[in-house]
């Protein structure tokens, strides 16, 4: 197991582990923790395949191309709509961080939610337009903080008992509840090109690793990490809220401040890094003017918040069940066109059916509500 394999696996796992984890204890409490682990296992396997498909597409390119190039190559006239959907996905990820941030800052300072949101938006937006040489380090700090949160929650729940039922009655609404949050929590497509870079470096150095193994481990490790967090939170409070940490106010003040601080750092680093990505896509890939790119990345997330996208579970479910579902369908389509004779081509049909089901349910639920 060489350093390139470890780095490639860590890059994918580190990209996947993120804010989605805070929604999972609530989801597991609604469906039952054993049912929840079944969903987690299934979607981890599904995303392992999706990530592997995308990695294989990138692997056969002449250089390390990105999604927008692939869309133009394989989708033709549909490339721009596909690219705009991926862009909308990233904007909704920014919105998720914007919605969740006041939960953490209010653990530390209390006060008015809108003020916390405005301060977080301002600090995140400033760094989107700063030329930073430490972006990679900021990513590392963000992952380290979220792992720190999981470690703290695990340590304080060590002697607790799990009282959440293993099974809950799954009516139609609850049956599909885990889809959006799990899709959001396990998606890691943006990291795959970095995995391919490490794979190519390992080949040049004469110590190649199995790409499939790195992809599968990189997708599975976050699921294991999530499992510790989910069980720990449910031990502490079986009546957990969708944001998880604001259900733990009974912990010591020092612990609360520590959790809130690490949560804010995680969201802040993720917010400005994804904001930079959105800005670069608008300018480089979609050829938007500089001023329009700036306005989109600055104003669209807060505008979405104030028009009604203010509930964390709703926003994360919407992002997962609409945009990440469409992204997965795009990847499946890209793979089918890149490998029209592959022996596992049949696998794309049941995979697509899973994502189409999630999309259909979310669209129907959205218009009903």
Verbal overview:
The chain has 369 residues and is mainly alpha-helical. The protein has one domain (3-368): Amino acid/polyamine transporter I, CATH 1.20.1740.10. It is built from 15 helices and no strands. It has helices at 3-16, 24-31, 33-59, 67-75, 79-109, 113-128, 135-156, 172-175, 179-186, 192-204, 211-236, 253-285, 290-306, 312-338, 348-368. α3 (33-59) packs parallel to α14 (312-338). It is globular and about 55 Å long. The mean pLDDT is 90.
In short:
The chain has 369 residues and is mainly alpha-helical.
State the main characteristics.
single chain, 369 residues, mainly alpha, Amino acid/polyamine transporter I, 75% helix, 0% strand
Secondary structure layout:
Blueprint: H1 3-16, H2 24-31, H3 33-59, H4 67-75, H5 79-109, H6 113-128, H7 135-156, H8 172-175, H9 179-186, H10 192-204, H11 211-236, H12 253-285, H13 290-306, H14 312-338, H15 348-368
């Amino acid at each position: 197991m060489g350093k390139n394999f470890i780095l490639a696996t860590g890059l994918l796992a580190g990209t996947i582990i993120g804010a989605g984890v805070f929604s999972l204890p609530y989801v597991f409490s609604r469906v039952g923790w054993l049912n929840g682990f079944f969903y987690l296992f299934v979607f981890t396997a599904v995303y392992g395949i999706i990530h592997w498909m995308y990695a294989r597409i990138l692997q056969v390119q002449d250089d390390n191309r990105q999604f927008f190039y692939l869309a133009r190559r394989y989708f033709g006239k549909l490339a721009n709509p596909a690219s705009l959907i991926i862009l909308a996905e990233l904007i909704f990820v920014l919105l998720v961080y914007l919605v969740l941030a006041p939960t953490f800052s209010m653990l530390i300072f209390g006060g008015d939610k809108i003020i916390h949101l405005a301060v977080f938006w301002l600090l995140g937006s400033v760094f989107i337009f700063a030329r930073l040489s430490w972006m990679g380090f900021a990513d590392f700090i963000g992952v380290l903080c979220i792992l720190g949160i999981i470690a703290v929650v695990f340590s304080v729940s060590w002697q607790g008992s799990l009282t959440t039922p293993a099974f809950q009655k799954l009516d139609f609404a609850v049956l599909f509840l885990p889809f959006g949050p799990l899709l959001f929590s396990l998606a890691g497509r943006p990291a795959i090109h970095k995995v391919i870079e490490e794979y190519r470096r390992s080949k040049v150095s004469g110590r190649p690793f199995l790409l499939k193994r790195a992809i599968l481990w990189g997708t599975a490790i976050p699921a294991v990490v999530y499992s510790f967090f989910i069980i720990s939170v449910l031990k502490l409070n079986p009546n957990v809220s969708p944001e998880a940490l604001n259900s733990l106010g009974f912990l010591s003040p020092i612990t609360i401040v520590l959790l809130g601080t690490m949560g804010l750092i995680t969201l802040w680093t993720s917010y400005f890094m994804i904001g930079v990505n959105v800005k670069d896509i608008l300018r480089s890939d979609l050829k938007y003017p500089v001023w329009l790119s700036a306005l989109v990345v600055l104003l669209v997330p807060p505008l979405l918040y104030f028009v009604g996208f203010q509930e964390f579970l709703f926003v994360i479910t919407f992002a997962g069940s609409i945009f990440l579902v469409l992204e997965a369908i795009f990847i499946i389509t890209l793979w089918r066109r890149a490998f029209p004779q592959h022996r596992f081509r049949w696998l794309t049909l049941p995979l697509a059916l899973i994502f189409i089901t999630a999309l259909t349910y979310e669209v129907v639920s959205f218009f009903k509500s």
